[in-house]
Structures are given as C-alpha cells and as structure tokens.
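Give me structure tokens for this 310-residue protein.
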Amino acid sequence: MNPVKKYLSFLPFVVCFIPFTGFSQLRVQRALFSQYQFNGLAINPAFSAVDQDSRITAITRNQWVGFEGAPQTQTLNAYTTLPNEKTSIGGMFVHDRVGVESEQAFFLTLAQRVQLTENSHLAAGFTSGIGYYLGNYGSLSDQDPVFVNQSSWRANVGLGLMYFNERWEFGFSVPYLAKFNVGASNSTTSLSALRSDFYLTANYRFRVNDFIKLKPSLLVKYTAGVPLQYDINMNAYFEEKGLNLGLGYRSQAAVSAMFQVKLNQRMQLGYTHDFMTDISLKHQMGTHEVMLNYRFKKARKSYYDSVERY
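Here you go.
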C-alpha cells in the first residue's frame, strides 16, 4: 500500500477523539505505578499495539504504609492481538481507595498500529469505561449533617498515541479525556471534578555486552494547576538470569528500587519499594508495589518476536 494512503487510513482513528480534550475525569485519579513500564496499559491504551503479546497483569500498590487512610490501588488488566496483527483489544479493572473515598472501575481498550518505515510504527489507542465512586463521609461523623455519603456512576473515555521502533518508544496519552455522570445519589453537596492528566513517555533499549541490556526511561505527567511531575528510571536486564534491576526518581516524591524476575518462560514477578523524599512523610514506611505478569503463547510468529520488550 502507498505510504500516504496508510497515513490517511489511520488519520480518522486519531482525529475522531480530538474534540474530547479539555474535559475532566473520574472522581478518583488513576494511580501512577512505579512499574508503569511493565504495565503500560494503565496509562496508555496504545501500549497493547506495541507489545504484540497476549498478557495478563495484576498489580497491588500500598502507598505510605503506616498512614491511616493512605492510598491503595489494585489493578488487573489483560490484552491480546487480533489475527490481523495490527489491532489489539484489552480490558482493565481498577480498585482505588483513599481515606473514606473509593472507586471500582472497568475499562475496555482498542488499539491500532500502522507501519511508517521498515522498522518504525505508530499506534493509537482508545479506552472507555465506567466506574462507581463512593465517598463514605458518613463514617466520619454520624451527628453532623454536613458529612453525607456520596456515590456516583461515571463513564469515561481516553486516548493514547505511541511511536516505536526496535530501540525507541515515545508515547503521549490522556487516560481521561471526558467524563460523563450517568447517575448520582442525592446529597447536600456536589462531587468536584478532577483535572485531566497528560502523560509523555520515552525509553531507549541497548545492549551493553552479551549479558546485560539497559533501558533508561522518562515519564512526564502534567496536570493543570499542579507542579510538573517526572519519573526518571534506569533498568538493567540480565538476560541469562531473567532478572531486571532498576532505580528510579520521582520528582519531589520518592526514590524507587525495583526488580522483576522471570519465574519461568511466561511468568514474571516484580516488586518496587518507594522511599519517600518528602520530610513531611517521614513517619511512614514507604510504598510497596507488587506485580505478577503472565504472557500467553503466540499462535504464530511475527516481526515482534525478534524485539524483546524488557
């Protein structure tokens, strides 16, 4: 197919979602995982078109252990590539809890990729889902009428783009482009809308020697009215041992130590400990994040079998 025709056929997939930018998101923000590189679907729905594997990933994150009401997040996501090897679909369940607020949400994802050159591709992903938010404010006081429980069903759509080749990956995503209130309980106060988060990601893979591969990576998160946040990470993959060790820094927040190990050819276990740098949080015991990932056997080989996503 002529390259120009490829771009034109891909354009409507992206343009149809642009009008949604600028809207607000669900009540509870999507958590930012330290192991986001191994759980890319959590922040960018286009990630499944890059990976080209069929995977299921579970992550639990307990933040600021020792603080009552500290954030806790659990996710379960899965995706697979369709037989045409250009389209992928996925789903994700998220459970968030912060203090007396909680949300359970389910999202579906759709991603499509096109080949730009012999070794480079562009992928676009779309996500849509629904979540149930509960603010259990009544548990704070059973006598003050101001503390009234709040609940709401919220629908959401999001968008992500990724450019990638054998060594580089660049991504842009807005997991929450638009929020729709599809049902709320009667209450004396209203639920406040949160701002959308914008993500930029980049990473580069290269081999140091016959045993070690390195992957430096960067994530930038922008939210209007909030200081710009960035994550800088360096991961070292020891191919013979199936072991991945990494260090990371999150601006004005934490230093992270992480590892991922292959339990077998298809299963991977990961753990991250975040050491908080904020002196106001010195009495907590850090943040713990555990990941379990399973990769399914491919029905047939493709170009991506020669590109290991470590």
